[in-house]
Structures are given as structure tokens and as C-alpha cells.
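Support reply, case 0932

Customer input (verbatim):
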Amino acid sequence: MAMASNHGEGQGHDGLEQYFSSTFERKLLVSMPEDEDLLTPATRLLEKRREMTEVEAELISQKESFSEEMERLARRKDKLREDEAKLRKSLKDYDKYLRENDLRRKRAQKKARDESITCREREDDLVRLHDENITARESRELQRVQIKTAEVYEVFLKRVLAHEHDYDEIGELLDRHATLKGTNEELIRQKELNQQRLETLQRDASRSREDHKVEMLRLNNKLASLESRREQAQADRLHWENEATQAEREACENTLLLGRLKMASANLYALIQARQGKGKEKMASTDKQLDKIKTYIQDLASICDEYDAGRSWVDDK
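Our regenerated output:
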């Protein structure tokens, strides 16, 4: 409804704008004479004033018509607002009615579902109770059969009590039997525990033997390796002992040879010193002795070479 009223108002405004535009174009766009030079300025001014007066009168008339149109549109707008308010109230009441009706429908459906669930539960309870009744009857019949069967044992126990004076009632005999049965079960359980412990100990012993064998193999391998290393060390020791003996022997021989060389050097040095008339001087070191001997031998070699050269020259003459 609001959209319809707004649309009507828009159409009214568009009509007024078109009317004013056509009026202004008709009143203001007056065709001028073809020869504008024939009109004086005063005439043109009067013409313009006349046109302005006519336009103002037309505007006043149009303003009054526009005011009347606006009042009519305002009344129409108020009427539309009242109709819209009535329609909204009707829609609100109808929506409330629909919600209440939907709520009543949901409550009725929930109640029907609850009653259906309750009926099914009652039916299930009836079936269960019927089955329990049948089971109870069967159990009662079975107990009756068991009691009838147990009467034979009761007669037997009474006969036992007639010959056994250690027990006065069947209950004592049954208690003794229960005690012996419990003791037997406990002994069986202890036997099973001991058997399990024995098996565990046997497994541990077998594992220990295997570990001992592995350790013995490892130690034997290590012993063989150490034995091989010992033999190698002994061979190395014998080798180095032989090397040391050979080195000691060579050292002794070298020492003996050095002593002989020193004696020969000392004798030669003493002879050279005696020939040079220096026999009373202190004995020099071996190095100096050898240097002295070397120099003396070089001098003798030079003398011999000169002698040979002079003799050859004489023979040639």
C-alpha cells in the first residue's frame, strides 16, 4: 500500500512538472518580430513586463492549483496510511492466529506421539512380563526336578550320617565337603602356579645356558685372539732380540775397529811427530791426529810426485 501511494505521488509530481514546463515554454518563448530593428527598447521592455505579469499570474494560478492538488494528495496519503495500518493489524492478527493454531497442532501431534510411545512401551512390557512368566514357570519346573533328583542325595547323606558319628547333621557334612573342595581347588591352583613358576625357571635356566654358551664362545674367541697376539708379540720380541744382538755385535766390532784405528792413528801420529822432532808434545785428539796424518801423507805424495818428475827429466837428459 505504501508503494502504491508513493507511486501515485510520483505520477502527480511528474504531471505538474510537465504542466509547468509547457506553460513556461508557451508564455516565455514568444516569437519575436522578424525585424527587431523596428522595436524600440521601451517597447521591448513593456513587452517583457507584460509577459512577466502574465507569467506571474499564471504561476499564482498554478500555485493555487498545486496547493489544492497537494492537499488532496495529503488526504489521500493519510487515507492510505490508515488503510495500511488496518491491513497490518489484520495481518498481525492473522499471523497470531496461525501461530496459535500451529502451536495447538504441534501440541496435539506431540500428545499423539507420546500416547503412541506409551502404548508401545506398555505392549513391550506385556510381552516382557509374559516372557518372564514363561521363564519363571520353566525355572520352577526345573527346580522341582532338581529337588526331586536331590532327594536321592539327601537319602544317601542320611545313610552316611547313620554310619558316621563325627557329624550330627547333613549341613556339617556339606560344610566339610565344601571345605575339602575349596582346599582341593586351592591345592590345584597352587600346583598350577608352581608349574608356571617351574616353567618360568626352566625358561630362565635355558636362557642362562644359552647366554653362558654365547659368553663362552665370545671368551674363547677373545682368548684365541689374545693367544694369536701373544704369539705375534713373542715372534716380534725374538725378532727384535735378534736385531738387538746383531746390533750389539756390530757395535762391538765397530768399537774394536775404532780402537784399532785410534791405535794406528796414534802410532802414525807419534811417528810423524817423532820425525818432525815433536815427540814430547801432548797427544792430540783423534780428529786432529787424522788431519795431521792426512796433511803429512799429502805432503809425502807431493814430494814423491816431484821426485818422480825430476828423475824422469834426468833420464831424458
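We compared this against your earlier run and they match. Two observations from our side: Residues 1-13, 27-35 have pLDDT under 50 and may be disordered. The CA atoms of residues 16 and 66 lie 8 Å apart. Please reopen the case if you see a mismatch on your end.
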